[in-house]
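Researcher: Here's my situation. A collaborator sent me these components and asked whether they could plausibly form a single complex. I don't have experimental data yet, so a predicted model of the whole assembly would be a useful starting point for our discussion.
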Amino acid sequence: MCSIIGYSGDDTAAPIIVKGLRRMEYRGYDSVGVATESNNQIELKKGVGKVEEVNTKVHLEKLPGKIGIGHTRWATHGKVTDSNAHPHPSNSGKIAIVHNGIIENFDELKNELQKDGYKFKSETDSEVIANLLQKNFEISNNVKDTMMKTVTQLKGHYSFIVMFENGQLAAARFHEPLIVGVGDNNYFLSSDVLGFIEQTDNAIYIDNGNFVLIDQNKFQILDFDGNEIKPQITKVSKEFADVYKGDYAHFTLKEISEQAETVFSAGENTKKAIKESADYLKHSKNVFLTGSGTSYNATLIAKYLLSKYAKIKTESIIASELQFSPESIEPNSILIAISQSGESADVLEAVDIAKQNDCKIISIINSLTSSLARESDIVIGMNCGPEIGVAATKSFTSQMIILYKIVQELSKDIEIDFEEISSSISQILEEHNMIKKIASEIKEISDIYVLGRGIHYPIAIESALKIKELTYIHAEGIAGGELKHGPLALMDSNVFVIIINPEDSTYQDTLTSAREIKARGARIIGISNKNSDAYDFWIKIPKTKELTYPISETIPIQLLSYYAALEKDTDPDYPRNLAKSVTVK
Ligand code: F6R
C-alpha cells in the first residue's frame, strides 16, 4: 500500500526521509512526496513517479529543516496525479499529513468540512485528515487533544503522521503499521523498519489504537483515550539492512537467485515452532489454512501434503473470502495462516474471525515482528531475508520448505533431501538460456495457460499468477484433468501452454494432455526432467525425488516471468498497480 515516514532530530531531515522512502518503495510507487519544517514554515514537494524520478525532477532531498514527513503512494482514492500525491497540507498550510490506509467515512467528513468553508485540492480520502486536524487544532491549540479528537472522528484503517508548522510531529495507528525508530538524537516514524534501519536498530512497534507525540526530543506514546503507554524497545535484526540489489539488475532476480540458499534457512530460526505445530496438527479435529495470492497458493500445497503424507484433512480458504462464510471455521480448530509480510489486511481479518471462534493460530511468516506474528499462538519464520520485489518468489519456496518440514515431523515415511533441492535450483539458475529464448517468444502473446496435475496444479496456479504480475500477459492455471471439461476450447495457434510434467505419477496423463493441446495448434513449453516430441520448447529440470519437483519447477517459471517482463520493458520489481504488502481491504 503506501509508506509513511517521519523524522525529527539533529540531522537534515529530507535526505534521511528520501533514503527511507527508497527502501519502502515496495509498498507503493506511483507517486512520492516530502514536507519539512524550517523556521516555523512547512515546505513541500511531491510528484508522480518513483522516488528516484521525482527526486531528480523536484529535488526532494534539498528541502531544508530537521523535521519532516514523506510518503510513497499506491493509489486507492483518486488517480495517480501530482495533486493526489502526499503529503497533503491543510487549508491553512500550517499542518501537513501523510497517510496509509483508507478513511471509510471521508465523504461524510469532507461534506462537513466543506460546509465549514474548507477547500479540497485532491480527490484523496487523506486530505480530510489534514483539514480535520486543522479544525480540531484551531479549537484546542493542543496537539494531544487534537489527536484524541481526530481519531474519534475517523472510521476505517489508517496510520498517519502529522507535522505542525512549529515542528511538532504526531502519528496514529489504527490497523495499519506504525513503528518508531529511536536513535541517539533522533526519532523516526515509519510503516516498516526498512524506513530507518540504516540509522538505528532500536524499534518500538506501536500498538493498534495508540498514538505518538514527538516535540523536540520529548517522545510520548498514548492510547486513544490519552493514557500514557510505556515504550518497549525491540532490537531489530540487522539483516533487514541488507536490502541492496548488489550486482543484480533487479531485486526480483536477486531474490530468485537466493533460493538455493533460502531452502536451507527456511524455518531454521523457529525449529521448535515447527515441532510444536506438528504436535497440534496431530491432535486437532479440524485444520483450516488461509492466505492471499501466492501465500494462498502455498496453502493448496499444504492441503495436498498434509492429506497425502500425514493423513490430515484440511480446508484452504482464501483469506478475503472468509468474512462471507465465517461459519465454515469450526470452533476450537487450528488455522494455519501463511503470509510473507504478516501485514495483509485480509489475512489479519481471517485470523480475527478464527480467534473469535477460539481457534489456535499457527502462522508462517517472513516478518517475525509483523501484526500477524503478534496475533498468533505459534509463529514459524520463513527466514528468507527481506523480499523487496513485489512478486513473491523466495518466500513461496520457503513456505513450501516449511510445509515439507512440518509434514516430515508428522510422517516418518517421508524424507526430504534439502541438498538435492538446493542443487537442482542451482542447476536451473545456471542453465537458463532456453528460458531467455522462450521469454522473447512469448512477449507478444496474449494468453498463456499452465497445466499441472496433483501437487503440480497449485504450482500451475502460482505460475499463472507470476506470469500475470510480471508480464501483464493473461495467464491461467489448469488442472490437467479439467482440460476436456472446458479449457480445450481455448487452444489454438495463438496460445502458449506450459506443461508441468516431471516424471512422477502424473507424467503419462499430463503428456497426453500436452498432445491433445498440441493437436489444436497451441505451442507447448514442457517443464520436465525428460524431453518429449510433444514439446515445442523444453525447459529441463534435474531428475530428483518426487517431492522435490514442485520447488524445481517453480524456479523456471519465476525466471521466465522475469525475463519476459524485461522483454516487454516492464519493471519486474514494481509491476503496475500492485504493492508488496496489501494492508488495506
Ligand atoms: C504474488 C504476491 C501476492 C502476495 C499476497 C499476499 O506474487 O506477491 O499475491 O502473495 O499479496 O501477501 P502476503 O504473503 O504478504 O500476505
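Model: Some features of this prediction you could bring to your collaborator: The radius of gyration is 25 Å. The chain has 17 helices and 25 strands.
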